[in-house]
């Protein structure tokens, strides 16, 4: 229970963001944590319809949240983001967020995206709305991430596949890690 209270303190300053209409979270869900992430979007050079192409493989990122401690702002690592098998979907690989505080985790699938240049920076991966498809409790049954219902990925910078290095059959199997930053916003059902 103490861990859950700490999480609420970390999220107390979260505020709603301006997003494209198709990325708005359904009514009845409220923002309860905003994080900033830095990591890579990872690609593999694979056969494609017209030769070879960079194919998205997985994300890897560390998420941080800011909170007040005494008279200062503290940036604390809160989660890790990666691809892993979702046990609630028979092991299907899904984007995963795992709490650094209690090891609880959520899996989600993208249900909407936007590359609208009015929102998304040039040469950046799309913004997303994701719906949670699986939850796992953490150590000793704790569940910081259990309430999560939706996740928004907004304010992306970078992360797009490279424009070279995957142009011929001899490049098949090559990997590329494209640095990116973003905000991940976590929502729960309103009480």
Descriptive account of the structure:
An 8-stranded antiparallel β-barrel has the order 1-2-3-4-5-6-7-8. The chain has one helix spanning 2-10; strands at residues 29-48, 51-69, 72-86, 92-99, 105-114, 127-136, 148-158, 175-189. It contains 1 helix and 8 strands. 5% of the residues lie in helices and 57% in strands. It is globular and about 55 Å long. With 191 residues, it is mostly beta strands. The chain has one domain (2-15, 54-189).
Global structural class? mainly beta
* Number of beta-strand segments: 8
Please mark out the parts with pLDDT under 50 across 5 or more consecutive residues, or reply none: 1-15
CA radius of gyration: 18 Å
Number of domains: 1
How far is the N terminus from the C terminus? 18 Å
Mean pLDDT: 91
Count of alpha and pi helical runs: 1
Order of helices and strands: HEEEEEEEE
Strand content: over 45%
Q: Give a quick account of the main beta sheet: strands, pairing sense, barrel closure.
A: 8 strands, antiparallel, barrel
| Largest sheet, spatial ordering of strands | 1-2-3-4-5-6-7-8
Q: For this entry, what is the oligomeric state of its chains?
A: single chain
Question: Helical proportion?
Answer: under 10%
Which shape, going by the Cα principal axes?
globular
